[in-house]
Amino acid sequence: MHGHGDISGKLKLALVINISILGVDLLGYFISGSLALLGDAGHVATDVLALGTAMIAINLATAEFHEEATFGHHRAEVLAAIFNSIMLLAVCVYIFFRAYQRFIDPVEVKTTEMLVAAVIALIGNSAAAYILHGHSDINVRGAYLHLLYDALSSFGVVVGAVLIIFTGYHVIDSVISVMIAVLVLSSSFRLLREGIGIVMQWTPEGLDVNDIVERLKEVEGVCDVHDVHLWTLCSSIYSFSAHILVEEENMVVVEQIKKDVRDLLHNEFNIRHTTLETECTECGDQRIQTVCHG
Length: 294
Hints:
Layout: H1 2-32, H2 35-61, H3 76-104, H4 111-132, H5 138-167, H6 171-199, H7 209-216, E1 222-234, E2 237-246, H8 251-269, E3 273-279
Parallel strand pairs: 2-3
Antiparallel strand pairs: 1-2
Helix pairs in contact: 1-2, 1-4, 2-3, 2-5, 2-6, 3-6, 4-5, 5-6
């Protein structure tokens, strides 16, 4: 529990920093008129979402069982991710529209204010990324990568402001805003796809059912694996169910085989929630036939 508290505290600090950066970017946009700052604000919003969902995942993982929600409330983060990704897509559309207008009719931006806001955002994102650097938790690592990418985005705005100061070409602001919006658009589509995939119970990205089945059939005592289902409960919790055909009828040995299967799924594929049904004869809907190993 102490480990969770330590990670949660750092996530909260990083979240506070990013909310502050979001405010600076938006204030900078309204004062300077820089679309690049608005694009950076959209990118920061994805960081706020990533940090928020990571905190939700940690809190839900330690929440007590509730009889009306036997799977818990893990998918609250998925609903939040889908909603926020749609909102970010709308922000991208607005940025593209405003950038198009400015390409036709360039608008002068206040470069000093733009540069100050961008530098503050760069420092804040770098500090938040440093806070989360080195953690093994998958949610924290994801949030760290978001912050790292956003620091690069803020750096791009700083470079853009400097270029405008030295060249006087204010259209550079629109160019940078479009580049950042493309990054936000990509992240938003990916986030939306992941959220829809979880709701639709698609196989988790990076895992192959056939590979897992073949690996399980190598476990001593396992003759066949069929009626396999693999899905994602939330961003870091994978669920697996299957029928395991064994020749052994001794229940002590069968339980050991099930333990070996669970250990393999956990250690090699990070699958922690498993439901296994063992059979000593082949059921009617089996899909794969094989020779028993061991």
